[in-house]
């Protein structure tokens, strides 16, 4: 079984199109989307339409859940933009996606089994995301673990093999290579490059992981963010780093 694994698209339509085009040439059996599909100042509605029209499996991200709100009042700027751009059917579809799935023997989550807003493969040190200690990952996963666990949320491409042989993979973010966050604690996530990230996971006698970084027209996406009043997103899309303060 070869799985194409995508996550954290955040409404970046041209990045998603580039990733799907590359996946179509890589002979994957299925594609799984680990959530956070639309939130952001880019193309939420168009992105959701493409996802729904493309055969793949989906799990719900924390921002997908947030878009199920009855109104945009109280949502952050990115969620609020997406809420207004999406129609009710699209918002209901996002909010109704499953928390987790088993796909081809892999456990698929947005973040961790604890909840959709807790990092699995990442920890916060000095205000930045770093690789989590294996023991902390084992604690979050619990004692019974499948051969492969797939997660997103941190936007950091990561790979960890635990002592029992469990392989845990984060494919990185398709559409948002850097961000600031204030929970849990103020921190930044930076990939260091503007490329659209995804992974291919091959499950056979051995588990093999391919991390991919695809070039696309990120300047087009950055101009879209600027046009929608988000200089922070524009800088992240161009550089893979957060806007200096």
From TrEMBL:
Coiled-coil features, chain-numbered ranges: none
GO cellular component: cytoplasm
Calcineurin-like phosphoesterase domain boundaries: 1-178
Gene3D superfamilies (UniProt xref): 3.60.21.10
Gene Ontology MF term list: phosphatase activity
Family: Belongs to the metallophosphoesterase superfamily. YfcE family.
Protein name as annotated: Phosphoesterase, MJ0936 family
UniProt organism field: Bosea lupini
């Amino acid at each position: 079984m070869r799985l194409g694994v995508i996550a954290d698209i955040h409404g970046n339509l041209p990045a998603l199109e580039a990733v799907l085009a590359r996946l179509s040439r890589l002979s994957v059996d299925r594609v799984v989307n680990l959530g956070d599909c639309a939130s952001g100042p880019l193309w939420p509605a168009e992105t959701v339409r493409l996802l729904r029209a493309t055969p793949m499996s989906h799990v719900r991200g924390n921002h997908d859940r947030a878009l199920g709100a009855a109104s945009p009042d109280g949502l952050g700027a990115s969620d609020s933009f997406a809420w207004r751009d999406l129609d009710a059917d699209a918002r209901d579809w996002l909010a109704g996606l499953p928390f987790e799935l088993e796909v081809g023997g892999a456990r698929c989550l947005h973040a961790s089994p604890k909840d959709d807003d807790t990092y699995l493969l990442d920890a916060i040190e000095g205000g930045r995301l770093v690789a989590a200690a294996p023991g902390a990952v084992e604690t979050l996963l619990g004692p019974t673990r499948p051969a492969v666990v797939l997660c997103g949320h941190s936007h950091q491409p990561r790979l960890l093999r635990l002592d029992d042989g469990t392989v845990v993979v984060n494919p990185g973010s398709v559409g948002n290579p850097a961000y600031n966050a204030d929970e849990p604690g103020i921190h930044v996530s930076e990939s260091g490059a503007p490329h659209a990230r995804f992974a291919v996971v091959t499950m056979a006698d051995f588990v093999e992981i391919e991390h991919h970084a695809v070039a696309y027209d990120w300047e087009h996406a950055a101009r879209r963010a600027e046009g929608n009043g988000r200089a922070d997103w524009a800088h992240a899309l161009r550089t893979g780093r957060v806007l200096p303060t």
